[in-house]
Fold each of these.
Amino acid sequence: MILTGSEIRKQVENGTIVIDPFDENQINPNSYNYRLGDHFSQVPELLSLGHKDQETNLQEIPEDGLQLEPGIIYLANTHEIIGSSRYVTLLIGRSSVARLGLFLQISADLGNLGPAHKWTLELTCVQPIIVYPRMKIGQVSFWVPTGDIEEYSGVYTQYDVPKHSIYDLLLRNTQ
Amino acid sequence: MILTGLEIIKQVEAGKIQIDPFDVEQINPNSYNFRLGATIKYYINDVLDPKVKQEVRTVTLPDDGYTLSPGRIYLGHTFEVMGSDYYVPIIKGRSSSARLGLFIHVTADLIDIGSHNQWTLQLYAVQPIKVHPGMLIGQVTFWQVIGEIEKYRGKYQGSLGPCESKIYRDFE
């Protein structure tokens, strides 16, 4: 089951869902609009095993906007710290931004139950588009799971900046 | 929890889900196939600035089809007027159009409860693809909610045909 907007508000108030900073005006009937953070990073053209210098190209999104170009993946993050150990988080786009052809995720919208953090966004655009820091860019929904909960203990929640793929993890069972 | 096809039929009959026109032939085991409406819009500008109201060009789809080109975002719409004040709709592509590389939304699959419209589709073709008016282009699922329901009263309510982004209002 999906939480309604008023249920999200209630669960934020009692601490079961973390959205920080939280603004009532960003609540929708069954989701919450999150904002774009202040930084972005481009993914290297060719990733290879053992790539270690991926965090070094972190840059600020200028106040007067950053123009994204098609064919490139930009990593950014949510302005808000978001998470819940009780409800499953789905991070998606919002239609006002989608209508301009901007993807917020690349087929990976499902979050893990576990600690709150700033979520990494995978931005890619169909046509060139300008993004602004802290613009309302996507939405997050929360879902009731069934079964015993084991929280996420992976590495990505340790990061509040756009976190590059730990590419080696994808390959660890192939050798 | 997601509604089964049989439950969707039941809730349409009970008036708790709106799908208009409704054709029982378009029911799947746990979704409903919707059709592509006859109108498409695209932006005149190449570079899209969300702070600026974007001008669009409107195309009526000819019966023998219209080719979508990669590199441009097209706004289509569902032929059906759909919505629910009780269940949350989530739209999906159909695997038949997905296998041809056609996106029908751009990471925005969640519809607000209480939003009754011809829903705007964000069409993006990986390779050139021909679309036809009335084709069964996507599917909609319906999900149960927990919590008190406050219905959608937003800026796209009641829209017919494709509706371009109104995000510039966020910056006013």
Note: Chain A has three helices and 13 strands.
Amino acid sequence: MTAKGVGARLPRKEDRRFLLGQGEYVANIRLPGMLEVAFVRSPMAHARIRSIGRLPNVFTAADLTGVKAIRAVSSVKGFKPSEQPILASGKVRQVGELVAMCVAPTRAEAEDLAESVELDLEELPAVVDMLEARTNPPSLVHEEWGDNVFLESLTDDDMSSVKKKATVKVRRTIRTARQHMSPMEGRGVVCEWNRRLDQLVMYTAAQMPHINRAGLAECLGIDQGSIRVIAPDVGGGFGYKGILLPEEVALAWLCRKLGRPVRWIEDRREQLSANANCREHHYDITVYADAKGKLLGIDCEATVDSGAYSSYPFSACLEGAQVSSILPGPYKMERFRCRTWSVATNKPPILPYRGVARTGVCFALELMVDAVARELKMEPHEVRLANLVQPGDMPYNNITKKHFDSGDYPEAVRRAAKMIDVAAIRKEQAKNGRVRIGVGFSIFCEQAAHGTSVYYGWGIPMVPGHEQCSARLSPDGVLELRIGAHSHGQGMETTMAQVASTVLGIDPANVRLVHGDTGLTPYSTGTWGSRSMVMSGGAVAAACDVIAARVKAIASKLMEVSSADLVLEDGHVHVAGTDRRLSLAEVAHTWYRRPQLLPADVDPAGLEATAGYKAKVDTGTFSYACHAAKVAVDTETGHVEILDYVIVEDGGVLVNPMIADGQVFGGTAQGVGTALYEEMPYDPQGQPLATTLADYLLPSATEVPSIRIDHIETPSPYTRFGQKGIGEGGAIAPPAAIANAVNDALAPLGVEITESPLTPRRIVEALMRRT
Amino acid sequence: MKPARFDYERAVDVSSAIGSLNGDCKVLAGGQSLGPMLNLRIAQPSRLVDVRLMEELRAASEDAASVTLGACVTHAQIEDRRVPDPSRGFMPFVASRIAYRAVRNRGTIGGSLAHADPAADWPTALALLGGSAIIQGKAGRREAPLDRFVTGLFSTVLADGELLVALKIPKLSAQARWGYWKFCRKAGEFAQAIGGALSDPASGRVRAVIGSVQGAPHVIIDAARCDPEAEAAKVCSDPYDRRLHAVALARAFAQLEEPR
């Protein structure tokens, strides 16, 4: 580790502009002559469109000739693709679906126009409940399917042996609420058609600009070179900005049609009522265990409410189908059977929110582990210790063939149990009265940066291969790194510079990251799946390796020494063991300004190189963490206070431990929301009932506890520096840890809650049912 | 979302404000509720009459028996005790727990009361304290008792064309004690249940109130021996709501006994 390279707690280079309010987001961009767009959105969840009133400056599906619907397909057998029209035609399938596009000089006037558009809809029965959608559908979301199931999957196994052996059999119904992802910045699009380049230039709040470009090209029927997508500063993504938006396609068409720049900035109400759904799972799950708490087998039926459409590049079964491969988590077992349904309903598409499927899976599995512990009167962390994959097993292929790269899972549990002090809490519980104390654990593994071998089987529009970086040493010795991933909170301007610093010995202050622009960066599937530090970090290192070799080749000529004797350190090329050195700037200056000094056989590619990276084993890194929560439950009001929260996390080698802590804190805050606050209910007609932030409760600073983090750093054997992806983990474990703590507090009263969020009403009503 | 078009008028004195109060206009007193309602187009008035800069509505005064607060005194002024407190700390306590400081800097006591959101603090807290609302209409000035000012969900005794000018609140005696307990899902949110209790040995009275109910706050004039469960049952049908409101009232009563 160098002072500023991989492993350093380097302050974030990007923070100065963010803290001074000088970031540039889509809504800060104003182009000359720009017009504003507001959409007419469907007021009904399911209806046939009889007519849409025609008005000047209002555009409907009939106007968008040549624009194709969004088709986010998978080649998985049995998958039924949806066609998401850019503007609704025929019928509407969710409240908030785009019906018409209204253009005016200001947003207020565009909204006036939208209000005046007359809509004649014939209401159809809405498909709202996912179980009913499958078993007793009130209607069909996509008539041509014949049912409401995007995909059914079965991981089969013979459970008879474990049924025979089991001392305990625990069966539960577990539900997680439909939620929103809530980045500080909503979505937004500004675009214009550049006549000189005959090119669409689109600024959009996006996590994967190259994927948006590909999707736009498919829908608009134009080549990808005629589209440039720029994601400027983006105020949080969490998966919400990892899809192609119908709004993007509509505005792309509009700016060309009008010959004027146009913009649409999503407001919070659109975000809440029409766009940002995620996470709704239902489990009917049975766990078999022996008398010592050893898990023998799991039998599960899981249903995921996928909403009306599959979003591009793919959303519909990402959660449902993954449940059957990730449900066993970090535990060993003999048998595993899981059937899943990804169900279509008249709700917005379910999008892959931070933790994608894992948050629900962790909630289901970890609640079951605690249920087993209570049944056997064992300490919950002891049951976990009895079942976790062991460090000696690594690398380990689990029952669903997930390949664990490294780690010491039991150590994470032992440390968490010690930090939260289970023994002290057990003593404190003797005094439980109106307010009851409880402790809860959860542990998970987070597969990250998984690549080709994992995704090709999905047959979706986005299969990651090699990740690339273009590096260029400028004439003044400043290094530019161009990557196709996007940083929207992850601090990549800092961490990528740290990687370059480790390879080239350059000061991170002299490194500039160029990202978020398809016109300037290599193709990439973008930022998702906690992959950037592994994949882009690997690519940056690979490109810097090439630059390093070329710098040495030039320096060896200038200094008349062998390349092998040169080392890169402190911004200089040193002759090892001497005080002779040349700065990177001097080497660069020679290449660009004084080429007469260069050797005849110099590499003509110069100080600019594109290199690619893929992990040695591309099934992904497995980071993991054990979370432990101590809570106080007011049994009269149902209020839950988090008294203590500890996390023992293993993200492999941490490139910047401070940024890793920040990722964990932020994710945990979101997990607290999932556990206790966030819920998007729908009425029987499919109307969303939490359409403002007064109704949709997000945890704020007051509700997020102080979090204590301890790190284990087990290197991944497969990545460049041993780093692992950890972007999502914080958001995975808290709902289970907190629910387990609440159940630990309430168990003596005969209450166990298996539905998130654990609202005061749910808690009090459960208590009232018992008394 | 952006508001629908409206005209804006800044009133300079009470009589000109009254003159402007006709048709579907709305009074803007702090804008912390009205602002979002305009943006969501739930409220679409043709005109906003901004009363925030009128001296009389910003004034605070006191005499031996009472304190008079202009309708546009902000929650923050009360919280910071920048205006006289008739209530032995009760009003600053209530004010300090309204939403967030940013809201308290702009939100006003009269605006909140006239808006009459049942989940807001002032409709309930002022019903407990009693006193009177000073109201100006075209026909002149009148007073209305504060414990009957709010008549239901978002409705008050204010008639069309009337403006809430000030609140005249009696001073509590040195022996008076109060309790105020509200349940919010999270810090800064509107309350789901409010309980308030006031015991003043000087008058021999114990008053109580249950707030954040479907209609007007439920005032219990002689609360010395009231049963919180039974009182909550009068105003809440849902069992969970009933429980929460009973707990709020019981905890407010308990505060009367706590050392402070």
Note: DSSP finds ten helices and 14 strands in chain B.
